[in-house]
What does this fold into?
Amino acid sequence: MYKRILVPVDNSETSAAAIVEGRRFAGEQRAKVKLVHVVDLAQFAWSANEFLDVPQLQNALRQSGEKLLAELAEGLRADGIEVETNLLESWGGNLAQAIVKEAESWSAELIVMGTHGYGGLTHLLMGSVAEGVVHCTPVPVLLVRATPAEK
It folds into this structure.
């Protein structure tokens, strides 16, 4: 039985599918859920110029992440699930590592996250946060796809 389930979230369909599975596991096992959202604050800093207000863009990322976490947590709480949230910040680092560190520090027993399931050249070019998490954590990981993989 899992009592502490970490669910990394964003605004994707795969993340929504992971929330559904996380909700199901938490409800069945009376587990606590921790929702995390990672923002990469360096994504604007590297190309900053006089036309961008980098601190404003970074604050917008934070606010958007906090809003997402609050909305998702509210939905889980409405189902009677105990929820914590945390906005994680990265500075051009590995997003998967940020998730793994949070899972370890929170003593997560399961990570439930979405994956696009890309393969081939798309995977090579885009990488995979989910794959990075799987390779770096000792915690069991449940990967959820929003739609069946294309063959």
Remarks:
- The first helix runs from residue 13 to 29.
